[in-house]
Design brief:
Layout: E1 2-4, E2 7-9, E3 18-23, H1 31-45, E4 49-54, H2 55-58, H3 80-89, H4 95-106, E5 109-115, H5 123-132, E6 154-160, H6 177-189, E7 195-196, E8 200-202, H7 210-225, E9 241-242, E10 247-248, E11 250-258, H8 265-273, E12 277-282, E13 292-299, H9 304-315, E14 320-326, H10 328-334
Parallel strand pairs: 3-4, 3-5, 5-6, 6-7, 6-8
Antiparallel strand pairs: 1-2, 9-10, 11-13, 11-14, 12-13
The structure holds flavin mononucleotide.
């Protein structure tokens, strides 16, 4: 067991793992499919067990309705979570869903492999999530976040895009890739207890030649061979919050800093991964005196001056603090 930030996970990568790849592409000759094939070859060579749900090849039905169930809790009105609770208690899930649930529960590493469509997952994969992660069986009733079914396990997004990497860096016309992946990293993986690994993103594959594609596949092979060196993205655990997740024992601090051009970006990224910086903006690309703003997560009982001192001590990437204020959440928590 390894501890990383707030999280513990099994460092079982070096040992044999059960890997489940959920693959969502309709074309076997696509780059997405090539990544899936390379993952199978690499992970198998490394001694892992690999299982694949090839959603198009399986003809997986993404539509969530009464066909999810063999049981009926309320025939008058379909409330999915109510039916899921009942099905969980009465062995009432459709066999195709039971098979997928078993695969997920058996997996040490979950990989979502898909082309980026409309800043998100193809509908078939979203439908797979909507149907397979069923209330009562896969989440809810105490199974959430660090207590979810993915507790101690990891999950990875592997995507192809049409757009270039620069358009997803957070300063362009597209949203940042971190924002785009939040519904998956936070809303699906971490919500269910899986620690999200840094994503593998093959940018622009729609527009590059065979050489570049070959290099990307080799990069992916290297990445999969070094998963034990990858630090999961740290997201807030429920235990940091009191009661019904309303009051955080830690506070949110809005920090404004000068000299943003001097920032140590690696350190900023580390602080983000560790869940200390929750959001970060900077005017460094188009400003003569660039400023950075960020939301810092730290003890709310500390004074603003104490927080500023900690940052000034150089622990935080070279920030020169101009202003630091406790955000609304912290005030709420303090009352
Ligand atoms: C329905 C649809 C939506 C798409 N949306 C996006 C998008 O939001 N962002 C993007 O960069 N590319 C988008 N694309 C381009 C695909 O991501 C790109 O063609 C694909 O990743 C190429 O890799 P492949 O060989 O794996 O299909 C979209 C393509 C389709 C068909």
């Amino acid at each position: 067991m390894t501890t990383c930030g707030n999280h513990s996970y099994h460092s079982s990568i070096a040992l044999a793992m059960n890997v489940l790849i959920i693959h969502a592409h309709h074309e076997p000759r696509s780059f997405s499919s090539a990544l899936k094939d390379r993952a199978v070859a690499t992970l198998t060579r490394l001694g892992h067990e690999v299982e694949i749900s090839d959603l198009y090849a399986m003809g997986f039905n993404p539509i969530s309705d009464r066909r999810n169930f063999t049981t009926v809790a309320d025939s008058a009105s379909l409330k999915q979570q109510r039916e899921e609770t009942y099905a969980a208690e009465h062995d009432g899930f459709a066999s195709e869903l039971v098979a997928e649930m078993e695969k997920v529960l058996h997996a040490d590493l979950l990989i979502f492999n898909f082309p980026l469509w409309w800043f998100g997952m193809p509908a078939t994969l979203k439908g797979w999530v909507d149907r397979v992660f069923a209330y009562g069986k896969m989440y809810g009733a105490g199974k959430l976040y660090e207590n979810g079914v993915g507790r101690g396990k990891r999950a990875l997004v592997t995507i192809t895009t049409g757009g270039a990497s620069g358009t997803y860096n957070g300063y362009g016309y597209n949203p940042s890739m971190a924002e785009i992946l939040t519904p998956i990293h936070h809303g699906i993986f971490w919500f269910n207890g899986f620690a999200p690994l840094p994503p593998f993103i093959a940018y622009s594959v729609a527009h590059v030649g065979d050489d570049k594609r070959g290099r990307l596949l080799d990069d992916y092979e290297r990445y999969l061979s070094t998963l034990d060196e990858q630090r999961p993205i740290v997201l807030p655990p429920m235990r940091d919050f009191e009661g019904d997740a309303i009051a955080d024992r830690f506070g949110r601090w809005m920090v404004e800093a000068r000299n943003a051009s001097e920032l140590d970006e690696t350190r900023v990224a580390e602080l983000q991964r560790d869940g200390k910086i929750l959001a970060f903006w900077s005017s460094r690309d188009d400003d003569l005196e660039p400023v950075a703003w960020f939301v810092l997560r730290a003890e709310f009982r500390k004074s603003a001056e104490a927080i500023a001192q900690t940052l000034r001590r150089g622990d935080a990437a070279g920030f020169v603090i101009r202003e630091i204020t406790r955000s609304g959440t912290a005030e709420l928590a303090a009352t």
